[in-house]
Amino acid sequence: MTAIILGVDAGASHSTVVVGSEDLIVQGRADGPPAAMKPGGATGAAAAIADTARRALAQAGLALPADRAVVGAAGAGRVQEQDALAAAVREAGVAREVRVLPDGAVALAAVFGGEGPGIIVNAGTGSVAFARDAGGHLHRCGGYGWQLGDEGGGYWLGRRALDAAARAQDGRGEGSTLLARLLSSLGLQRFDDLIRWSVTATPAQVAALAPHVLNAAREGEAIAQRAATDAARELVGLARALERHFPGTAPIPLATAGGLLIPASPVAVAFREILTAEMPRAQLVACSPPPGP
Fold first, then answer.
1. 26/102 Cα distance (integer angstroms)
2. Number of H helices, E strands in the chain
């Protein structure tokens, strides 16, 4: 077999490792725990990547280390984080040669080709937009975490669900089934139980509430529909902030990614409508699904 190469998607909600050879034939694939880069967290991220890589390689009858690994990591937007994670992944025995890139750079290359210009808006647990201009320069907007933003992402939308539940409990808001939906999904009985749950909930757990907002929006609940529209408006705002890197009047290729922007999502529907009205130069392009083993 030729050199074994690992492609690693190290995200905030989960990670994926694909095993391939130099002829780009996929040999194995595995999903694993979150492996996003956090300050001082290179060792933990590398351990998660190593566990997932080990299982992916096992599908091909192989073992660590691979020859090379390319890691697209959330939270690795600066050179310092990239170098720290690359060193930790090598130390964990994942591969002999490791290159770490921002996840946005990998997404842009996957959608628009190695050097093609365009914008990609990603809304999963958080939200971020990346752009590559005609000169090949990379730009970003958002993606700073739930404390500083991530507007329109899963945590932001889950937080809106909790807010609607509290307002419904007090009689401060209009009627909504969100409180009942959250209690049922979390196995709770009363609003007081939800209060206690929220005190220790992680950002990922709050983000996991977002589908209940989307389901309520699909069923016509006004409060959920407004939340989905507001999320879409925030995401369009990320793209519009990057438009300045594309002077002129030519169309700007734009792609979407992440669970909140799958085609049937109420957020995606509103996103397309708002994008057409507020950023007419944007030309939506489809993302191809990743190949299976």
1. 22
2. 10, 10
Identify the pLDDT of residue 289: 44
Mean pLDDT, the chain, rounded, equals: 90
pLDDT band at 287; cut points 50, 70, 90 = low
Within 8 A by CB and 6+ apart from 23, the residues are 2
Question: In the sheet where 138-142 sits, what is the strand order?
Answer: 138-142, 127-132, 118-123, 252-257, 282-284
Q: Which residues contact 74 (CB under 8 A, 6 or more apart)?
A: 10, 11, 12, 36, 37, 103, 143
3-class secondary structure, 289: coil
**What is the pLDDT, as a whole number, of residue 1?**
55
The DSSP secondary-structure symbol of 258 reads S
Per-residue confidence (pLDDT) for residue 175, from 0 to 100: 75
pLDDT at 292 over 70: no
The span from the CA of 32 to the CA of 13, in Å, is 9
Under a CB-based contact definition with an 8 Å cutoff, are residues 60 and 27 in contact?
yes
Bridge partners for 98 per DSSP? 69
- Helix (H) / strand (E) containing 7: strand 4-10
Closest C-alpha among 161, 272, 156, 152 to residue 216: 161
d(CA 226, CA 56): 41
CA distances (Å), origin 181, targets 155, 176, 192 = 17, 9, 15
- pLDDT at 199 > cutoff 60: yes
